[in-house]
Amino acid sequence: MGRVFVAGSINMDVVATAERHPRIGETVAGEAVLYFPGGKGANQAVASAKLGIATTLIGRLGADAFGKELRTFLAGQGVDLTFVRDTDGAHSSTAIITLANADNTIVVVPGANGLVDADDVAAPVLARGDVAVSQFEIPLPAIAAFFRRARAVGATTILNPAPAKQADKALLDLVDILVLNETELGYLTGTGLRDSDTPERFSEAARALGQGRIVCVTLGKRGVLALVDNQPLLVPGREVKAVDTTGAGDCFVGALASQLAIGKPLGDALAYANAAASICVQRMGAAPSMPTADEVSAVLSTRRPGEGRDP
Ligand code: RIB
Q1: Does the beta carbon of 286 sit less than 6 angstroms from any atom of ligand 1?
Q2: What is the pLDDT of residues 249-260, one digit of tens each?
Q3: Using one digit for the tens of pLDDT, what is the confidence trace for 135-157?
Q4: CB 57, CB 80: distance < 8 Å
Q5: How much is the pTM?
Q6: Domains of the chain, each with CATH number or no CATH
Q7: Are 305 and 266 in contact, with CB atoms under 8 Å apart?
């Protein structure tokens, strides 16, 4: 059985809830200010660990109060923090989130995350069968170094290129599975995609990234579209009442990694991750809303006919 290694960001999410999002230049009255552990790397590691898979997080915290709080929370979720360093002179990364009608806007101030480097990812020892996961909230050279080490031992690499930014081909060539949403797909392929576009349009765009790797496009409530050897596989979304979608994509990535680490076939792993994300959106906060394996099993026992099969 493999393990999951996540090299990525650890943030304190400072969330302001309001009835609606302000327009540019506008002020609106909020309802509450909430503090949740977050960061794409930490969220993905918590998702995997809570599902019962040995999970190691590699990253940095500032030597400050948020850093202490985040470390305590992550340890409590069963994430191995041996390779999370406290960094003098840097603040823990903070995400300023506005949440209205279950949807968010996010501004991330990198702090210690921006200092993760090749030395940080050189320490953990990966092995064949492990899964190495990263996202774009730490510097890209560190991700490339991490994936090179993973590839060298035959571990599977998963990249979640979020938030979207241009990456060179050398980095993408180190990726076995790319997991991204419609906006990130549009950005990386230079195509103007919209939420309302058809799955065929997403498949077409994903083909540009699919040479030699699996591409999974998360489509929110519509589910996930995977392109495997250029063949589309659609896992439909589940009808749930979302209260906060923050971290749902991370839940999907962490759950997918966890299932691949224990050797599940891709179609089953996608259906599992999809079910996990449908639980996450029904709770407030990012890292604290990741489900347990029992919760995901309960949702999967209500699996609809056709899920996980070709469209
Ligand atoms: O993907 C959600 C995460 O993005 C939040 O937890 C926030 O920290 C930002 O990194």
Answers
A1: yes
A2: 999 999 999 999
A3: 999 999 999 999 999 999 999 99
A4: yes
A5: 0.95
A6: 4-8+40-92+113-300 (3.40.1190.20)
A7: no
